[in-house]
């Protein structure tokens, strides 16, 4: 049986509900929140067709090598090893979501996707809802930011599904500055959905993508990543949005070639985690500080714990009140 490293377990399952009243009264845009990147890739369907988000050369590779190519892609697609419930128990509260229909499949079913097709979206949403039912003071950000092979009917289906599953837990789109944990608890809201597509316009419980910018460094080099994170934090808007710092290295074609044998985890992430975690450890939340921080392989370190503990700095700061 595989053992989990330190930092994984359910001791962060109620971290939001356990925050001191000074912090639960602060806008959530000033609180440090751990997130996971390409969430829902902990299970990938090797026998499904290659996902629509892959470039032409990978599709060509998959056609030529079939099962072998898919196994290679599984290594590069599995950026999270923990299930949804495990990520939530570990304290992850922001999920980066990419969804797709399966081309050629009848019906309107939607799947989570990163390279290959994963779980049905409905199953993942039900798993989240089940957790929230047991942890009434926890709040999640669901960021639906990439859609593939989806037409108007698919979007209607997905938006209706989100409303069916979460119901009155869905927070209405409003001024970001007014969103505090105290406000959400009072209204019994636990889910903030960001829907980066015009289909969601005019639906009160669907927040626009513009309210959660997540600048992407698109680099394999940790030093360039850190420089990018610093620059984009300095440029963070004063009003009107949350902010995602993507502490993530992106595989390139030649990186995939070099790392075929080991996969993303060993080749790109484990070697560079110390640099990335060291950056996270010295951040501060609050005005002009970090908000949501995402990482690959949240189980390799105490990642969620490190991010959550950053909030302790807000208790000792005299200037922690938002300007």
Give a written overview of the molecule.
It comes from Seriola lalandi dorsalis. One of its GO terms (molecular function) is phosphoric diester hydrolase activity. By secondary structure, the protein is α/β, with parallel strands linked by helices. The chain has twelve helices and nine strands. The protein has a single domain, classed as TIM Barrel (Alpha-Beta Barrel), CATH 3.20.20. Strands 1, 2, 3, 4, 5, 6, 7, 8 and 9 form a nine-stranded mixed beta sheet that branches. A hairpin with a 1-residue loop joins strand 3 and strand 4 (116-120). Helix 2 (56-65) crosses helix 3, helix 4 (84-90) packs parallel to helix 5 and helix 8 (222-234) packs across helix 10 (263-281). The longest helix has 19 residues, at 263-281. The chain is globular, with a radius of gyration of 19 Å.
Describe, in short, the structure shown:
With 323 residues, this protein is an alpha/beta fold. Helix content is 37%, strand content 14%.
Features:
TIM Barrel; 9 strands; lipid metabolism; PI-PLC_domain; hydrolase; 323 residues; disordered N terminus; 9-stranded mixed sheet; phosphoric diester hydrolase activity
Topology:
Blueprint: H1 21-24, E1 33-36, H2 56-65, H3 67-77, H4 84-90, E2 94-100, E3 111-114, E4 116-120, H5 121-134, E5 140-148, H6 152-166, H7 181-187, E6 191-195, E7 206-207, H8 222-234, E8 244-247, H9 253-258, H10 263-281, E9 292-295, H11 303-309, H12 312-316
Parallel strand pairs: 1-2, 1-9, 2-5, 5-6, 6-7, 8-9
Antiparallel strand pairs: 2-3, 3-4
């Amino acid at each position: 049986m595989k053992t989990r490293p330190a930092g994984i377990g359910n001791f962060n399952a109620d971290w939001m509900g356990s925050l001191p009243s000074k912090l639960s009264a602060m806008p959530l845009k000033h609180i440090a929140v751990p997130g996971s990147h390409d969430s829902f890739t902990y299970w990938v369907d090797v026998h499904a067709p290659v996902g629509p988000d892959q470039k032409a050369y990978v599709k060509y590779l998959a056609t030529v090598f079939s099962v072998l190519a898919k196994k290679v892609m599984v290594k590069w697609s599995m950026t999270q090893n923990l299930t949804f419930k495990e990520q939530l128990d570990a304290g992850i509260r922001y999920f980066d979501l990419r969804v797709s229909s399966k081309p050629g499949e009848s019906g309107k079913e939607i799947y989570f996707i990163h390279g290959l097709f994963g779980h049905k979206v409905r199953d993942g949403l039900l798993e989240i809802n089940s957790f929230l039912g047991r942890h009434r003071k926890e709040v999640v950000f669901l960021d639906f930011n990439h859609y593939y092979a989806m037409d108007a009917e698919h979007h209607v289906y997905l938006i209706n599904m989100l409303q069916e599953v979460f119901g009155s837990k869905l927070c209405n789109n409003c001024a970001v500055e007014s969103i505090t944990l105290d406000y959400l608890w009072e209204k019994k809201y636990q889910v903030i959905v960001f829907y980066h597509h015009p289909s969601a316009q005019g639906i009160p419980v669907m927040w626009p993508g513009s309210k959660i910018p997540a600048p992407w460094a698109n680099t394999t080099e940790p030093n360039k990543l850190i420089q990018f994170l610093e620059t984009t934090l300095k440029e963070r808007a004063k009003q009107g949005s949350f902010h995602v710092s993507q502490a993530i290295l992106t595989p390139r074609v030649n990186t995939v070639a070099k790392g075929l044998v080991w996969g993303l985890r060993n080749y790109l992430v484990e070697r560079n985690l110390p640099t990335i975690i060291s950056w996270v450890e010295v951040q501060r939340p609050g005005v002009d500080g970090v908000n949501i921080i995402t990482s690959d392989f949240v189980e390799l370190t105490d990642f969620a714990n490190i991010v959550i503990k950053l909030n302790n700095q807000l208790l000792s700061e005299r200037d922690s009140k938002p300007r």
